[in-house]
Amino acid sequence: MSLEQAPLPLGPSSWAIDAGPDPLAARQGLIGAPLARRDGPAKVTGEARYASEVRLDGMLYGALAFSTIPRGRIVAMDTSSAERAAGVALVMTHHNAPRLHSTVELGTAERAAAADELPVMQDDRIRWNGQPIAIVLAESQEQADHAASLIDATYQPEPAITRFDQARADARPPALYQGDPLRQTIGDPWTALAESPHTVDAVYTTPRHHHNAIEPHAVTLAWDGDELTVHDCPQAVTHLAWSLAQVFGIRQDQVHISAPYVGGGFGGKMLWQHQILAAAAARLSGRPVRVVLSREGVYRVVGGRTSTEQRVAIGAEDDGTFTSLVHTGVVATSRHNNVPEPFIKPARCLYATRNATFEVKRADLDMLANTFMRAPGEAVGTFALESAVDELADRMGVDPIELRLCNEPAVDPSSGKPFSARHLIEAYRAGAERFGWEARSPRPRARRDGEWLIGLGCATATYPYNRFPGGAARITINRNGDATVEVAAHEMGMGTGTVQSQVAAERLGLPVEKIIFVLGDSSLPGVVLAGGSQQTAAIGGAITAAHRELVGELLKLINCDSPLAGLHPDEVGTIPGGLGRLDDPSRSESYTAILAAAGVDTISAEATAPEGMEQLEWSMHSYGAQFCEVRVSVITGEIRVSRFLGSFDCGRIINARTAASQLRGGIVMGLGLALMEETQVDGRSGRIMNPSLADYHVPAHADVPDIEVMWTDIPDPHTPLGAHGVGEIGITGTAAAVANAVYNAIGVRVRDPPITPDKLLRHSPGR
Ligand code: MOS
């Protein structure tokens, strides 16, 4: 904070209507500054300790054995060889597992963390191919792995639904998804479509995906009586503690989750069977246990994004105005959970239409529970929608950006709510100019460089603003003027600790070096999911609330001869190192002076953020315009993404470096969605066939060009810090931008990513 700035008033006590913008949103200084990650040195030197690196005295190593059928019963299990194998301390199966309670499914309770409510190793039933049937504990990981391989199970298989085409015949509306039926009709879309002079109507499919965090799921834990200490890598420490407590019939405060570092999550780092099995086996063996899933284990135990089949139909007038928008389809789900990839969400907010219908149906398979994966719904929904818009533009012979912009809605087309902040047009204009969009030929196959055809494509990105209930923080200031900020939040690599140190420093008027930000522990305040791209707003709101409380406490300490005597918190503001009167900034007191005069060493305040009522008042989303240049070999069908630019509208950007990294990371994952990622399932057995990074391809460095990102940086007046999330939007729109660029390059429209060379050669009109 610079000395010239006026005192910074306290943040609003809510972000709902009439609350006024967060004064911090307009602040320069630390807000927006490209600070390097504060935990970077600890990570690159190896000092940062991840869950699989925690060593506990007397610890045993666990390995899982997995079922090889999708559905049925275990009729016999031979564990004798495993039990006799060197170093083995315990083989646990449903025969000897302790009795465990079930926990509730994600989304059904505030602190739910499990993808399903299935009992864990409590009976002989097999519910998916890959379900854990045994856990072996041994003195070393190698001994455990070997012994697990010796377990022999005999099954009585039962008929299973393992193919999407079997399941889709019985497709049905899902249960409410986050309170939403995932179906809505506005006006008369079918008549409008039939009467439209221009239409597109196509089906797009997307396969299953897995998260593939660089750190496989790992847990190291120990019991002390009925107290359970868990070193884990979740994106929801409080949810995990609550859920494990349910399973073991103990209180939440008897479960202590420690997770200072998480090696990537993307929605997959929640509660799965391996943590429950590790804790149960630890109880049975009386020793601490570490379970690190192999990469194959992650695919067997941890569900990813499910597959979708989406129909998009658009009708348009001659001037490009949409008359009708249809986005419907079916997603695969498992019988035992409810995460129906909500692909209709982008269509519901992006385009002005008087007639529309949106519907997601679910088709149940006997599969591992699928779950949230980076931009659930939007990642694959924007693929279909934004491909269809490009197809329509091509048919109409209009520029795809102009077609989008002439359908820009004045209010949210499905809810009728005003937008809290929407600057998509600015993002498109700035991005198009920067990218050199005018060089694009509207005609496919128009640009060639030797064997390479070159194409440009664009697509809209969007992801909602979320701020879930439960964000809380504790701020403690001591007499040296140092502040500790504590939140039960998560550092999954995105820079949360760094960004929130900046926020706290600016809010408190302290240099960032004076801020200690503590996160990743269930004993800290708050219920903060690192998901839904909501951590920045959730923590920002929590710090604001705790800061208000802290200022109130500081004012209570103040002497009657202080220049701040008798003031209400709303009459003071932050100045460097202390508080000043808003009506007379020259009259102020430092934190140090306040504490010294009162004779106290520290002062602490904790508060919960007000609920996210702003989300009821406004339609709140991040937006972006994705631009892609591809080169496609006419000989091999190889696709090289040669340039990529994302131009985003995500409210105020709090840290230019970490935000750019989040946006780029999302785009990289979107390139994977477009070009290579696919969890392949054997339709006969429901078994995942490519459970390794050798067979499931993710983008490697050579696949990724220098990705440029830019942003509007226009604060949303209705959010903490004026910010929107940046964690997930990068993956949205990306795959469509690639597919649209591929079409522009070679005139082949691929509607079933990943866009692999065989699909291009099959359809290519020849060299
Ligand atoms: Mo994300 S799928 O909300 O981690």
Shape summary: globular
Q: Any idea how many domains?
A: 3
What is the topology, as strand order, of the major beta sheet? 4-6-2-13-10-11-12
CATH topology of the largest domain: Aldehyde Oxidoreductase, domain 4
Number of strands: 30
Alpha plus pi helix count: 19
Radius of gyration (CA) equals 27 Å
Proportion in β-strands: 15-25%
CATH superfamily of the largest domain: Aldehyde oxidase/xanthine dehydrogenase, molybdopterin binding domain
Largest sheet properties: 7 strands, mixed
In the CATH hierarchy, the architecture of the largest domain is 2-Layer Sandwich
Q: What is the CATH level 1 assignment of the largest domain? A: Alpha Beta
Distance between the termini: 61 Å
Structural class of the secondary elements? Answer: alpha+beta
Q: Which ions, cofactors or small ligands are bound in this entry?
A: dioxothiomolybdenum(VI) ion
Walk me through what this model shows:
The protein is of the alpha+beta class and 767 residues long. The chain folds into 3 domains: 24-37 and 468-611, Aldehyde Oxidoreductase, domain 4; 54-159 and 214-264 and 269-301, Aldehyde Oxidoreductase, domain 3; 368-466 and 619-763, Aldehyde oxidase/xanthine dehydrogenase, molybdopterin binding domain (Aldehyde Oxidoreductase, domain 4). The strands form 7 sheets. Strands 4-6-2-13-10-11-12 form a 7-stranded mixed beta sheet, sandwiched between helices. Strands 8-16-15-14-9 form a 5-stranded mixed beta sheet, with helices on both faces. A 5-stranded mixed beta sheet has the order 17-18-26-27-30, with helices on both faces. Helix 10 runs parallel beside helix 18 (734-746). The longest helix has 23 residues, at 535-557. It is globular. The relative contact order is 0.15. The mean pLDDT is 96.
